[in-house]
Amino acid sequence: MIDWGSIFSNAAVELISPTTAAYALAALGLAVHFGYTGLLNFGQAGFMAIGAYGYAISVLTFGFPVWGAVLVGIGASIVFALILGIPTLRLRADYLAIVTIAAAEIVRLLFTTNTFVAVTGSANGLSEYKGGFRALNPLSFEGKAGFGPWMFSANDWWNIIVGWSVVILAVLFTWLLMRSPWGRVIKGIREDEDAVRALGKNVYSYKMQSLIIGGVFGTLAGMIFIMPRAVIPSAYATSLTFFIWAILLLGGAATILGPVLGSIVFWVLLSFFSGFIARAVEAGWFPISEVQAGQLRFILVGVAIMLLVIFRPQGLLGNKKEMSFVK
Amino acid sequence: MAEAGSTGTDSEEYEYFFLGNVQYEDEPLEGVEITVEGGGFKASAETDADGKWRIGVPEKASYKVTLDEDTLPKGVIVAEDEENPRTAEFGLTNTKSVNFFLGEGTRQTVSFFDQLLNRLANGVNFGLLLALAAIGLSLIYGTTGLSNFAHSEMITFGALMLLTFSSDLGFPVWIAIIIALLLSLGLGWSLDGVIWKPLRRRGVGVIQLMIVSIGLSLAMRYTYQFFYGGATRQLPGASPADLQLGPISLSWIDLVSMGVSVVVLLGVAFLLMRTRIGKATRAVADNASLAATSGIDVDRVIRIVWVLGAGLAGLSGILWAYYRPGVSWDMGFQILLLVFAAVTLGGLGTAFGALIGSLIVGIFVELSTLWLPSDMKFVSALVVLILVLLFRPQGILGRRERIG
Amino acid sequence: MSSETTPTSKPVKSTGLHLGDAEPGCRKVDPILVADGVTRTFGGLTAVDVAHVEIPRGAITALIGPNGAGKTTFFNLLTGFDKPDSGTWQFDGRSLAHVPAYRVARMGLIRTFQLTKSLGLLSVLDNMKLGAKDQTGENLFRSLLPFLWRKQEQQIEAKAVELLTRFKLDAKQHDYAASLSGGQRKLLEMARALMSDPTLVMLDEPMAGVNPALTQSLLDHILDLKTQGMTVLFVEHDMHMVRHIADWVVVMAEGRIVAEGDPHSVMQDQAVIDAYLGAHHDTDLGAAHTSNVEAVKELIDDEQ
Lengths: 327, 404, 304
Prior knowledge:
The complex is a heterotrimer of chains A (327), B (404) and C (304). With 327 residues, chain A is mostly helical. Helix content of chain A is 70%, strand content 2%. Chain A has one domain: ABC transporter involved in vitamin B12 uptake, BtuC. In chain A, α3 (44-62) packs antiparallel against α4 and α3 (44-62) runs parallel beside α5 (93-112). Chain A is globular. The longest helix of chain B has 33 residues, at 112-144. Chain B: Pfam families: BPD_transp_2. Chain B: It is found in: Cell membrane.
């Protein structure tokens, strides 16, 4: 029969997992881009890949310490944002969408190609970069600790603590920004950039700043993402970006806590759903294979994106009036 | 799964491996490059000091394994009766060893100029099939303002239907092609009827529509994988022997493919320029409200554009299946960005720009393999897209006002 | 509105603005804006071809002309929202060629739009605050430290509330701008433009789509701007309004300046009458639509 206990406890683990934190942070970056500025970034997976590889390559190839590797990742994502923004931020919104999605694919293909295998590990990716980060862990206990379903090793707890701390800092940072006059300009650009331009604001520069901030959030998310796993280039495919969009739309695009709530709800529900389907298939409830059960989640996410955009564009936390879609 | 979204508890590395041992006269050879390709996945590895290599793959499916003869020492080739590349499949275990026997001999080398001509011919073929999809995308964009990310699934649909009716249901290929095309037209009709027309009625904005199309793309793509699996399957009679036309070697399928593309593209051009519906389409593309006040049934025009666009995409998918070769669930998605690049290069919303953009992208992708490793060939086309936006954002045939 | 400065029945007209005859391109005593040889073509169609024009300082100038005369395009060119094919133009003696729109605005030349651009999902008050110049808190790094900008923010808010009171929008200050009526949005846009203390205010069809009940109040506000020492240039169709408030009228047709003069004499000008009677009222030369017009015409031909 179905082991409901393990389905629920697996779902509960997702509530605080570092992966949930990583997706929340990447979605917060998209909220800055899309929800507040109106920029259509479909290359958030590219920013995450740059964070992941920037960190791992800095550590493995150049032997940088943790802080150095983090700075390299952030620097690389600022350069990436500039490359994306300079040609497109003067153009109509959908050009940025096409260019960001293309650029993210370029990044992934460059990390996948065999040409740079010595540095990137090609399709097999990279691992063994976690030593420096784990050495900073003040927790030192053997085995697992915690309570209820949340029994983790010292390294897992360290990933969770650092991951969610970064998310909290990013939330505070975004909150400060969005209630300041800077945030007012950004929101004005989302509504009508010509009007803001006519009031003497350098719209291009503000859009670039927004692109960089959201991109750096994506990059930090990429670093949190790789702490509990290895760096595999296929993880940074376009569907990663689409997952983050689903989370953003679920939580509410023009809200600060929406992306965090969206990520938690998304992962808990997805884990619950996947766990249920997988075990129901084992129990022979559905005439499908386990591989097919794994694919159902992608179909579900796709349908969820469509339904959310059509029927609840403001998301869970958004104000019905301040829904994010203006044009 | 080759896609993202795996949680910490899922598999972190690939579970399935190809491995092998490259030796020549009992001496291990180091630095020989092996490539594994299939189902949209591609990876390479070099042999280590012991001559061993190992490549992880995402699916327990059949893959094409290639040994790059250029990386062998001088005077050594893969033995003549050995297949290279060869198709390898997993047995009961999660590993599969693939070994190539080497022999003495010299590689057949092709002169650079001949390679150039060959790549050019392939590029034209590829560009023409991209153009079929790109014109549909461009017409849909022109008439509705929608950047349709689900176009890739309309491409895949044609190939999957052909596979179903020819390989699975045993129809002759030409009948299966006709059925696949008719079903593609029907797909366009029903997508507009079920999703896009109601959304237009609700007055949903173009950005929202674009995100809906992204969700639709994801849902459709994995629905295909759900029913057809992750493996790449071959169409009956695909990859026949090449014919030599002077220095250029193409198969008869390549020639037919180019011929079909040219005829269909001319037909679309005639439709747009000379027929009533074509003129109505252009009028709607230029200014829908003005067209409506001139008595044009805008909804009907858009419906026809969707049907036509889906039919062209389905045909493009069939040709793409022969070009790759093979049919897989995400084959359309593999070229979606190239189609977008083509449309953007030519100028968003201009049908003839889409044709020129496609030819440029197709030729560029093929020619770039002369200098770049083949797993980077799509990179060059996407880089060109960004460069063009930098210097001529309106596209090659676009008007400056359109980007305003 | 501040009634002591507002002449409601018969506004005081500024006179003696020009030198020599009142002909197209004539010199002004004290021009604030001077344009020379400004041209803009769209796909072979000339939308704007202005040889020379001067806008008098401290007066209300109306830019009139039939549909498709190029008035809005000329506005866009002057304010940096579009780039001309050729030409030079100065504002207060400083060249504006190749100056981006936001810099033009910072120089004190503020414009409004034909289709109102109120920022719908910002509150009315936030709309106003956005108009203020030189805000410390609009810098990314300083915005994170509220104590650096809080004081300035309070001053801006006080000014915004004062202006909103003058424009009778203070009761709506916490509502989303999207909830305002068309006329109220026009008022908001004008009030927002005043937040930056501009020297030249350019209004693109300030009366279009405004409820007649609000028309008089809008007119009074425009006259108010002049009393406060600002220069006004506006595009308008309503001849009654032009006659009522404008000190000087510039007439455009087919991209050119065809007549200039005070409102009463310019209405008698033969060139103006020709321009209005001879104009194609049905086709807007909005340039980008020409091929569409072609396609529609072909279609109509097929029908017959």
